[in-house]
Design brief:
This protein is α+β, with helices and mostly antiparallel strands. It has 15 helices and 46 strands. Strands 25, 26, 29, 30, 31, 32, 33, 34 and 35 form a 9-stranded mixed β-sheet that branches. It has a 5-stranded antiparallel β-sheet with strand order 36-37-38-40-39, sandwiched between helices. A hairpin with a 5-residue loop joins strand 3 and strand 4. Helix 9 packs antiparallel against helix 11 and helix 9 packs antiparallel against helix 14. It binds 2-acetamido-2-deoxy-beta-D-glucopyranose (11 copies). One 2-acetamido-2-deoxy-beta-D-glucopyranose binds next to loops.
Length: about 800
């Protein structure tokens, strides 16, 4: 077994440190200027200076990417000149020295016979003994145990309980200074594991606790096509780690010098930040104080848990949190109230490692007067552990798309009050009470009695008395601020003409400024639009729950008499069609921007289809529904005709045909069948429009009657796909990337839905130049005259094709 390894060892002995060797042997040194390169040419180890500073550091970086350091040996001991050397002694000690000056060292415990230091293709620098009988199994030392600011695939963030080793991530001091910065991301404590970002001794952000399946409070890092996270909890080790599905995509976690935890991947020749763990204001640790819950829509949106009230009245400072309306009376009638959709609070403790049911957990918590809450999770894989909380409950967040359940201790008086309110509520709903004229109440009639009941429940903080089992079913919980008509009128200068910025699908759009200084876009739905009400409800219900940087954010709504308004974040660059189909502005949209718009739309759509809790088919994807922020980042908007689907009915659904010609898939336009694949079709059309700068519908070419999709296919089959590229684009572009885009675009517009890729494959194919892209076949709807030749049961003559307005009045049968 060890013979081949030993042979390799002999051969290396005969030669000095060769260029591009991956191993340093006993008695060899590594001088400044020399490097070790891993055998697959992935990583390189040697001396570097960050950002052309004069200080020298010994570290590991990616071999084929502009300097991106993943590990630093002497981060707090910079070398001031080029004369230090790394030496490996025949006893196996590693030292970075210049004469008497020692910058860094590793001294293995115990005797070592044939030491060698090797850089592996996963970025791990390992010290091993070639004579050790068990081969390469145990390393004497490895850089993966000495995490700096970067967590590579296969690295572990956590504890080895046997050796006491704790692996934390610590940020660089600044982008140009690798010395230990202010932020540390560490796993603790090992018995109810959660990950905490520290700034010195202050908690900044908390991810957890682990509930056996994921960390409470963010479900963004779940396994997907490229990324496979793992949390290991065994008697020996407790750690978080991850692997990537295909090693050819490079990726890493980092803690930035500013304290953001990011997951980056090398895509499109640059580091792309795929996820930042801290998403919003609510991710600041303890922002709403004890017993406060943070709602992530706007800054300062704290509320007390039901049964608690504010300690302070300052609306901006919630650090005082909330206190109980009724004090506990330990051992005399205290009970528990169930709360849902929460990020679990801090300071939990696991009750040993034994399988318990919910009643046992409750009994355990009742035993101790300082136990404030409990829940049941499955950390140890034994079926269920009790998680108990002692002391004040802090750092809770409303988390509708992946929150947890917790049972909180309450006085008997509170529990009785809840039961009474519940009974009353049933009566209220039964008689269908009329609603007051307050804006905030009117919406309830719109959304119906179901939502009325839900909102009332929310006003009691969406809880129910524990053991009340009649409370199953999906939760519908609207978390949307309701603005007063006066405030909205003020913000928009009384809906003045000067503030009008556009005409959306179902009404006019005004720019406004809230008293807080925030710019907003107010969509005022047409009074006479029969569809308006339905679209309004749909949009409010759907989008209020969505959070993604490529989706436009709904901030609130307002109802006044017949008026219905939606208040969005304001996006200064208007919609994509404004840029794409204007001969002047089009010139300014360079390829890099176009590509990032394509990627952004793809990611937003992927989120809608696969990642949001509500799985959503947008059904009306087109350039005028893509808004652009000040940096030209795309945001998908207009969810007026979007549909949710469940995993069970993820196949095709049939519906009234609504949408926009030119972007509709064949099966939808003809039969009313829609699925995620009909969105993929629209995305493909959009992609080809972005590449070419032409509209699909109304495309004109002197030589043929094809639409843009047909034209693209014709060019593709003639081997002239680049002929599609916008002639007005004023700069050079990477040919391979453009070709890959066109190929993906053609795949998305295939005739048969099953031939079209899913959005996750689209994101992969677009994002990585190494992924395989299948050959497209002839696309669907490549001739403009499709509608006249089909057997569909609607009459084309009733349609108005003159612009790309959304069609809503059309019935399919
Ligand atoms: C390293 O040097 C020491 C002392 O010069 C010598 O005893 C030893 O054999 C050398 N080891 C190797 C592997 O060359
Ligand atoms: C490099 O720096 C070390 C430590 O400061 C010093 O001892 C050594 O003399 C310097 N070497 C040169 C060539 O200046
Ligand atoms: C350290 O610095 C001195 C110069 O002061 C130089 O002569 C020596 O070679 C350097 N290198 C090592 C490995 O000590
Ligand atoms: C990735 O590389 C590691 C070694 O660097 C190897 O153990 C693993 O099997 C590889 N995984 C894949 C999917 O290629
Ligand atoms: C590991 O990292 C810590 C700092 O995080 C450092 O103090 C320590 O010396 C390192 N140990 C080794 C062997 O590199
Ligand atoms: C890691 O974090 C834990 C908890 O904060 C701390 O006790 C430990 O010293 C840290 N370890 C390192 C190497 O910084
Ligand atoms: C890198 O160095 C350049 C010039 O030396 C400086 O302008 C820039 O701010 C530095 N970057 C960082 C991150 O320190
Ligand atoms: C918990 O107990 C189960 C079975 O009793 C055992 O398999 C598992 O290893 C234990 N886990 C820990 C972390 O002690
Ligand atoms: C809130 O008020 C309660 C009762 O008045 C008090 O015990 C508690 O310490 C206060 N909490 C904070 C954080 O001020
Ligand atoms: C209640 O729990 C706390 C925290 O674990 C502990 O310090 C205290 O001794 C317990 N009290 C009783 C009566 O068990
Ligand atoms: C990983 O990507 C490379 C480059 O595209 C490809 O050749 C290889 O087959 C992929 N491996 C797996 C396991 O998918």
């Amino acid at each position: 077994m060890i013979f081949p390894l030993f042979l390799a060892f002999c051969c290396f002995l005969a030669s000095p440190l060769a260029q591009a060797a991956d191993t340093l042997l006993a008695n060899q040194t590594l001088r400044d200027g020399q490097t070790l390169v891993s055998s697959g040419q992935v990583f390189e180890f040697g001396f570097f200076s960050p950002n052309k500073s004069s200080a020298r550091y010994l570290g590991i970086w990616y071999k084929n990417i502009p300097l991106q350091v993943t590990w630093v040996a002497n981060r707090n001991n910079p070398i001031t000149n080029f004369s230090a050397e790394l030496a490996l002694s025949s006893q196996g000690s590693v030292s970075l020295q210049n004469g008497s000056m020692n910058y860094w060292s590793v001294i293995p415990a115990g005797a070592v016979n044939e030491p060698f230091l090797r850089l592996l293709d996963n970025g791990n620098l390992v010290l091993s003994d070639a004579s050790a009988s068990d081969g390469s199994g145990d390393y004497l030392w490895q850089s993966f145990d000495n995490v700096t600011d970067t967590l590579l695939p296969e690295m572990k963030l956590g504890w080895n309980l046997r050796t006491g080793l704790k692996r934390n991530m610590t940020s660089w001091a600044s982008e140009a200074n690798p010395s230990s910065g202010q932020y540390t991301f560490s796993l603790e404590p090992p018995d109810a594991p959660q990950l905490i970002l520290w700034k010195g001794s202050q908690k900044q952000y908390r991810w957890g606790p682990w509930n056996g399946e994921r960390f409470s409070g963010s479900n963004e890092f779940k396994a997907n096509a490229v990324f496979d996270p793992m949390f290991i909890s065994s008697p020996e080790e407790v750690y978080y780690t991850y692997t990537v599905v295909n090693n050819s995509t490079l990726s890493r976690f980092i803690v930035t010098p500013e304290g953001a935890i990011q997951y980056l991947a090398w895509l499109d020749y640059q580091w792309t930040n795929l996820v930042t763990l801290q998403r919003d204001y609510c991710d600041n640790y303890g922002t709403c104080g004890p017993y406060g819950i943070c709602y992530d829509s706007t800054v300062g949106n704290c509320r007390c848990l039901e049964g608690f009230r504010r300690n302070d009245s300052n609306p901006l400072d919630w650090t005082g949190g909330c206190s109980r309306t009724w004090n506990l009376n330990c051992g005399n009638g205290d009970g528990f109230v169930k709360y849902k959709d929460l990020k679990l609070p801090d300071n939990s403790r696991l009750l040993g490692n034994r399988s318990s049911n919910l009643e046992e957990c409750e009994t355990e918590c009742l035993k101790n007067c300082s136990c404030m809450a409990f829940t049941r999770v499955d950390v140890h894989g034994n079926g269920g552990d009790c998680l108990l909380w002692f002391g004040d409950l802090v750092d809770m967040k409303n988390y509708p798309s992946g929150g947890d359940v917790i049972y909180i201790r309450m006085a008997k008086a509170e529990i009785d009050a809840i039961a009474r309110a519940k009974r009353r509520r049933r009566i209220v709903i039964a008689i269908g009470i009329s609603v007051s004229t307050v804006c905030g109440m009117l919406i309830l009639t719109l959304i119906g009695q179901y939502a009325l009941r839900r909102r009332k429940e929310r006003r009691r903080a969406a809880h129910s008395v524990y053991r009340d089992s009649g409370d199953g079913g999906p939760e519908e919980d609207l978390e949307l601020p309701l603005l007063d008509i006066v405030a909205v009128a003020d913000a928009t200068n009384n809906f003045s003409f000067q503030n009008k910025v556009g005409q959306g699908g179902f009404g006019e759009v005004y720019k406004g400024i809230l008293p807080t200084g925030q710019d907003v876009a107010v969509k005022r739905l047409s009074l006479n639009s029969g569809q308006g009400l339905k679209e309004f409800k749909n949009e409010v219900i759907l989008i209020a729950k969505l959070q993604h940087r490529n989706l436009v954010k709904l901030l609130g709504c307002c109802i006044h008499e017949d008026e219905r308004m939606l208040i969005y974040e304001y996006l200064p660059n208007q919609s994509l069609d404004h840029h794409l189909f204007d001969p002047i502005r089009r010139k300014l949209v360079i390829w890099k921007t176009r590509f990032s718009i394509i990627m952004g739309i793809a990611r937003g759509l992927l989120y809608l289809h696969e990642d949001s809790r509500l799985r959503i088919i947008h059904r009306d994807l087109k350039p005028s529904n893509i808004l652009l922020d000040s940096d030209m980042n795309p945001k998908i908007s207009d969810f007026g005709i979007a549909k949710t689907f469940t995993v069970e009915n993820a196949g095709e659904m049939t519906n009234r045909i609504v949408g926009t010609y030119g972007y509709m898939s064949p099966e939808y336009a003809m039969k009313g069948h829609f699925s995620v694949k009909s969105d993929v079709f629209s995305f493909g059309v959009l992609l080809l429009e972005i590449v070419s700068g032409h509209k699909n519908w109304g495309f004109y070419h002197p030589d043929h009657d094809l639409n843009l999709v047909g034209h693209a296919w014709k060019l593709w089959t003639e081997g002239n796909a680049l002929g599609l590229v916008d002639v007005l684009m004023e700069e050079e572009f990477p040919l391979k990337e453009v070709l890959r885009c066109i190929q993906v675009g053609l795949l998305c517009v295939q005739q048969r839905p099953e031939d079209r890729p899913t959005m996750s494959s689209v994101v992969l194919m677009l994002g990585s130049e190494t992924s395989d892209v299948p050959q497209p076949k002839e696309p669907g709807f490549s001739a403009e005259s499709f509608a006249m030749t089909t057997d569909s049961s609607f009459s084309v003559k009733t349609l108005n094709f003159s612009n790309d307005a959304t069609i809503t009045a059309l019935q399919s049968r």
